[in-house]
Structures are given as C-alpha cells and as structure tokens.
Amino acid sequence: MSDLMNVVPAKLDGFNIWSALVKLVSASVTLTGLGTLVTFFVIFAYLHAIGTPELIGKALEAPSELWPWIIVSSLLLLFYLVLLLLTTLTYALAINLFKKTPSVQPIMAIYLLIPTLAGVVATVYSTLESHNSSVVGVFVDSAVWVVVGMIVLFSMPKFNVSLVGAISNGGAKTVHRLSYLKHMWGLAMSTWFAAITATFPMLAVMSSPSVLYNAGSMTKVVWISILLTVFGFTPAIAYYVSKGAALTRVRNALIGVVALIIATLVIVPSAVPTAVDQAAVMAGIKDERVFSYMLTETYAAEDFDAGWGEVVTKRNYPVVEGFILFTLGGVTLLCPKILEGSNLSEWASKSGACLTMSSKMVKRMPLKQ
Fold this sequence. Notes:
Blueprint: H1 2-7, E1 11-12, E2 15-16, H2 17-49, H3 56-59, H4 63-95, H5 105-111, H6 113-129, H7 135-154, H8 157-167, H9 177-206, H10 209-215, H11 218-232, H12 234-241, H13 246-267, H14 271-282, E3 287-295, E4 312-314, E5 317-328, E6 331-336, H15 347-350, E7 355-358, E8 362-364
Antiparallel strand pairs: 1-2, 3-5, 3-8, 4-5, 5-6, 6-7
C-alpha cells in the first residue's frame, strides 16, 4: 500500500486524492451502517408488532426483497416528520411578522399561543368529537375561536404595548389606526393558518385504526391530539425565545425538534409500527385480501380447526381461505379469514393462529367467475 501511495501523486491540481478517498470510504461505511440499522429497525418494529420476532433471521436472508420495504418505510416516516415540522414552520411564520423588531419576537412567541391554541382546540374538536365532515365547517369553527383568542390578546395591555412598539419601530413613527388594524388582521390570519396547518399533520398521525384502537375513547384521542400539536410549537418557541447568537438559537430549535419526535413516540408509541405496517402493504410484504390457498406441505384438512372455516381437499392438498400477514425471505405467515380486519395492536395476541410456512408451499388458487 505504501508503494502505491508513493507511485500515485498525493495531489492532482490541488485535489488531495487520498484525503478524498478516505472521506469516501468513511461516508460509505457510515451509510452502510445506517442502512443496516434502519433495516433491522423496520423489520423488528413490524415483526414485534405482529408477535413473530423469531422470523427476523429469515427476513434478513432476503436483502433484495427488503429494500423496497425499507425505502417505502423510510419515506413514510420522513413524510410524517415533515408533517409534524409543518406545525413549527407555520407558527414561526406568524412570529416572523415581527422580524423588523427582533426584541419583540420572544414575547410574541408566547402571546400568539393564545389564539393559535384556541384555533387548534376548535379544529380538533370539530373534526373528531363533532364529526364535522365539511372542511368549510371546520375552518369556520377554527376561525371563530382564533378571533376569540385575538380579542383576549387585545384586552391585554402588555400585548398592545408590544404590538404598537413593533408597528412604530420603537417609536420612530406614528401608529395610525389603519396600520394597527392591518397588523391585527395579519396576526389573526397567520395564527389561524398556523392553527389549521398544525392540526391536520397531527390528525394524519392519529388517524390510523391502530392508534385510535390503542387510545380508547374519542375524548382521549382529542386530548392526545391537542397535546401533540402543542409539542409541535416547541422548536419555533425555542428558537425565538432563546437568547444568544443565531447558532445558539438554531441549536435550541433542533433540540426542540428532537423533543417533538420523542414526545410523539412516547405519546403515540404505535406511530412507527403503523407506518412500517402501511409500508409493508405498499411493498407487497403484507396482503390483507382474502384468497383461497392450497398448502402443499404435510397438512391435511382435519388439521385445521373451525377458525379456518370450511377446508376442502383438492389433489390431496388442503385448500383454506386466508390472507398473508407477512411474506419475505422464503417464509409466509398465512392467517385465517376470521382474523381479517384485526388492528395492528391485536396481532401480537392473534398471530399464534396463523401458519408459518415456506413460501413455495403456499399456492394461491385462481378466482372462479
């Protein structure tokens, strides 16, 4: 190796070849390690959720089949993260209306929570508790409560002093009533927009059947939704309330993002398995459609209990009705039709009724018209 390094020039037109090579190898090793961790995490999250962690070894034997699932799972999780970050982005835009007077931004980051949270509560309640199917109705409910929140703000002397100071640029110019109303209108619209865009990303995370099943009552779902949305404002508040240089504020905002992710995983622990489950369906790892399957392993019709329904024998092999809960690495987990529609959180206790078989021994029968 040392001879090779002596023969090959260390630099080529100012470009350090060996330094670049070391960085490339380091990056490749890092990405490979990260990919391995993500792969293991995705497989374990799903197999643990359905109560069959012992299949992880078999699943890892088929890397070519894994990658579509890993990619789709990663994209879904990234999509959920972006949705959650929309909360803090829209709230930051509302606070950013005071960019010409940075000294006012920390206090406004707190004050503007009043109308924003009023709109959030109204949107969540209107969507989940009132079952309002009209988007217009939800928007109107939210707007009304944002206005109520703004009225509360206007009745607070300290807020008015801060707002007038921001409009007048620290007293440098006179504040006209029209200018005051214009800024009030801008604040009301921005906080209403923040409330709407903060709520619907949270509803996307909360709307899966397994999450609703775990939460129990709809009232609990409403309060969990509101709590998640409040956590969504953390990065923006951390950024604007922090004192110090821009780097310090960015660091605090990133800490807020980490806190948001941790809070989401703690409050809704089934969020990740749900995303992985959805990715499994999209990647063909799971197929919830019920079909007839011929089992060419050493099973007979009398081996199946009543849970499998009517089992017929064709060409000396049993034919059952069921669906595929998991198929990867030459292994298929076939479940009886009676378990169709089970929630993800129920599979840990129900997957024992399913058959773990070689994929080659599970033959889907053609549909008869």
